[in-house]
From TrEMBL:
Gene3D superfamilies for the chain: Nucleoside Triphosphate Pyrophosphohydrolase
Molecular function GO labels: hydrolase activity
PROSITE patterns xref list: NUDIX
Domain Nudix hydrolase: 5-143
One family name in Pfam for this protein: NUDIX
Keywords: Hydrolase
Protein name as annotated: NUDIX hydrolase
Highest taxon listed in the record's lineage: Bacteria
Record-linked InterPro entries: NUDIX_hydrolase-like_dom_sf, NUDIX_hydrolase_dom
UniProt signal peptide: none
Lineage, broadest ranks: Bacteria, Bacillati, Cyanobacteriota, Cyanophyceae, Nostocales
């Protein structure tokens, strides 16, 4: 999580398989609600967003990406756990290089030793119907 009052530059990957997308599950304690968002992470000083994207997928789920295509830059203002957040998102569309990633139900990964997350395939219809919450909402423009 970023420091209060700072804009964070992150990179996210839109990975689709027919009508499913690969997302990570999060929980907002203040809102007491589960949400989903594309996988990715912070862009470090001196690295491009594309390099950051590949590094994050290697670090978090040991996955290589292919067919990487830049989509857009999105500005995201949000509240998470009761705190204001501000992100600049570099959004890419890509595929997993290893076809085995399309067979998994879900996997658990650690951002830090104390913070574990679940990544999974979810049918886009569940987000469009409002049954599940996809963030940021502007993501719907790319589905």
């Amino acid at each position: 999580m970023n420091k209060e009052g700072q804009i964070r530059v992150i990179v996210l990957a839109l990975i689709r398989d027919d009508n499913r997308i690969f997302v990570s599950e999060g929980y907002d304690r203040a809102k007491q609600s589960t949400f989903y968002r594309a996988l990715g992470g912070g862009v470090e000083f001196g690295e491009t967003s594309r390099i950051a994207l590949e590094r994050e997928f290697q670090e978090e789920i040991q996955a290589e990406l292919t067919n990487i295509r830049y989509l857009n830059c999105i500005e995201n203002l949000f509240t998470f756990d009761g705190r204001q957040g501000h992100e600049i998102i570099q959004l890419y569309q890509c595929d997993f290089a290893d076809p085995q990633f399309y067979q998994i139900e879900s996997l658990t990964f650690s951002e830090t030793p104390e913070r574990k997350h679940r990544a999974l395939w979810i049918d886009i219809a569940k987000f469009k119907s409002g049954e599940l919450r996809l963030v940021p909402e502007v993501f719907f423009d790319y589905l």
